[in-house]
Amino acid sequence: MRRSPTLQRGRARLAVTGVLTGLLITLSSPVAQPASPPPVPRRGSAYMGMGVLAHDGRAVGADTAPPTRANQLEGVDVASHQGNVGWSTLWGDAIKWAYTKATEGTSYTNPYFTQQYDGSYKVGMVRGAYHFATPDASSGSAQADYFLAHGGGWTKDGKTLPGVLDIEWNPYGDSCYGKSKSGMVDWVRDFLNRYKDRTGRDAVIYTATSWWTDCTGNYSGFGKTNPLWIARFAATVGTLPAGWSLYTMWQYTSSGKAVGDHDRFNGVQDRLQALATG
Hints:
It catalyses: Hydrolysis of (1->4)-beta-linkages between N-acetylmuramic acid and N-acetyl-D-glucosamine residues in a peptidoglycan and between N-acetyl-D-glucosamine residues in chitodextrins. By secondary structure, the chain is α/β, with parallel strands linked by helices.
């Protein structure tokens, strides 16, 4: 049966209209854009565990504290984003020791350092200070000097712990701060040597095993002299960096909460006192 010319023309118009409508819908649909990289934080805003959390993340179940052990002491680490810390409350919660960020690079000092550093001491805690390393900014010795000039010193009063070199993923750029593995080892050695020369104490090294492996080639040469503060947000500390058979401290969570990040000292009170006394 022959279709009428009018019917054929109508069907043709409908087909063309459908194609045009589909084309218009396609053209008007939003085009998927590539995800924007996260904003680079401002210099000075880094805190202990910031790079570790961004790189390694948090293991499943890590929001629950590992089982309490009688031969370990609970501690906290704090920085400027905690502001004024309620130390009496933390002392009442059996927090026995604390570290406060003092410096970063050679230009940043924590504006809350006095309240945090002195406040922990006044309630009875054994306390210390840490330096967030930025090896791309200046030499290790220059940063050790800056740290010592702004709260990173040590006194033999039984309540002041040796300073900490916080060396982890760069939150501002290249993970290894643009340094080769040997160049990073040299930078760390430069910092540690200057700190030891000026205080008589070996600084504590805070790091994560994966960063240490990637950026120093898993260098083993500091294990006999410098206490290790291992960062791993999981139920166990996992594999330690080369050169260390034991850890001194373990940061097991980094949340940025007002109460600070939580840590364990691998020993009882007299061992903590021994580390403070030297």
